[in-house]
Amino acid sequence: MRLPERQVAALEAASATDAQPIPDLAAEAGIDEAAATTSVFELEEDGLVAVETETEETVSLTDEAREYLDAELPEVRLYRAAVEAGADETPVSMGQVIGASGLEGPQVDIALSNFARKGYGEIDGGEISADPDADPDSDAEITALEALDAGEAVDDDSLLDRLAERGLIEREKRTVRSVLLTDAGVDALMAGVEAAETADRLTPEMLISGEWEDVEFTDYNVEADATEAGAGKVHVLRQAAERVKDVLVGMGFQEMDGPHADADFWINDALFMPQDHPARTHWDRFALDVDPIEDLPEDLLRAVENAHREGVGPDGDGYHSPWSEDFAREVALRGHTTSLSMRYLSGAAEGDLEPPQRYFSVEKAYRNDTIDATHLLEFFQIEGWVMAEDLSVRDLMGTFEEFYRQFGITDVQFKPHYNPYTEPSFELFGRHPETGELIEIGNSGIFREEVLSPLGVDCDVMAWGLALERLAMLYTGAEDIRDLHGTLADLEFLRNAEVIY
């Protein structure tokens, strides 16, 4: 029997008793994996080998999981601190227990969200009660992580799903094809197989020299696996951003731009956010270790400081909380793109603006959030505002209804909300086309006098910040924001995402 060289190599490397994965067969045959795969399918077609296919799942620990293997899960640390503080006998202040646990930043939220779920105790009214009968040493999640770290299998799928949701493991499925010699293959080897010189393609050189007349060409197997070539495609978020811009420009808006790293003054102070607000701690903002910004409008700086200290108008009271000019000049990554609105409304960006005006931006913002299905450390915010006389809540709602209608989204719901910088304020919710759940898609309101007066604006301004990723989730059907962008992005989903609405 005469066979192409690579088929002979694959056939001779195959076993009649032990199925070999194709990568192992390729290594033993001394040919590359792609050539081995093609040869195996050709040999299978001739009945000389059999191919077994199975799906194999690998589970690997994340860096966060390895950190917990060294220092315990956050909820376990919280429980031990609670017991140490006597919370197994009488409730103890949550702040006291968190301080004693040594937990910081996102780990505090992780501990609090898992504490009651695992039956370690209860959290009520700012106090923690610990269950004296709880046994953190037998925590199923840490036990599973230890087993995986030791290379052992964990068969509980629901437990693995929970660890994956927490970002503690990564699960990957792959198809494994193994090769086994058939009786016909064994007979062929015993009878002797001769390697024939073959070519897998016709080249210009063969045509010029006439060699093509004497060359034996390999058969073309249309069923064989081929190397996948992904064509370039505009990212679904870029498509969404461009569509948003088109819609807003069509509604009469102009686009804003500005720095990603800015003074805390523009990011928060001008928005009447108190400097001791929890969102302005190192837990939530990304402060930069750079020189403070010196170039701030002095008159505006004093006006904003006065609004914080004393309030605005006869009924204003301010915060009477600490206010530091040094803090206002510090630089951080913007936690929202409303810093751009402050620059434009104050006249610092393009000079004084006379009403009516409509501006928007679709830019990145950065927050030190706990990563989950609807939160990332960086995201795109659809910022917008309208400056005009006698604006009402109905104007605000009508603007949203018209905007989302352009994307085929008609089920938009509003819920009253509190913001330090708008009154009244509303959160927006849209219904997910796949799960049917309402998900938060934005925040909005009418700027307070304490925001507008220092900026020198004496008419109404309604404003909003909408989440581009969540809009994309609504019209593509994505259920996890991490599928859209970031290190865990689902490339297959992005290649094939279609608009549902």
Automatic annotation (TrEMBL):
One family name in Pfam for this protein: tRNA-synt_2d
Chain sites annotated for binding L-phenylalanine = 338, 381-383, 421, 447
How the cofactor is bound: the record states: Binds 2 magnesium ions per tetramer.
* One GO biological process term: phenylalanyl-tRNA aminoacylation
Q: What is its EC number?
A: 6.1.1.20
Gene Ontology molecular-function annotations: ATP binding; magnesium ion binding; phenylalanine-tRNA ligase activity; tRNA binding
Q: Keywords in UniProt for this one?
A: Aminoacyl-tRNA synthetase, ATP-binding, Cytoplasm, Ligase, Magnesium, Metal-binding, Nucleotide-binding, Protein biosynthesis
Where does the Aminoacyl-transfer RNA synthetases class-II family profile domain lie? Answer: 244-489
List localization entries: Cytoplasm
Where is the segment annotated Disordered?
1-22
Q: Give the chief site where it resides.
A: cytoplasm
- Residues binding Mg(2+) are 423
One Gene Ontology cellular component term attached to this UniProt record is: cytoplasm
**According to the UniProt entry, where is the signal peptide?**
none
Cite the HAMAP family for this sequence.
Answer: Phe_tRNA_synth_alpha2
Assembly and interaction partners: Tetramer of two alpha and two beta subunits.
What name does UniProt use for this protein?
A: Phenylalanine--tRNA ligase alpha subunit
Gene source species: Halolamina pelagica
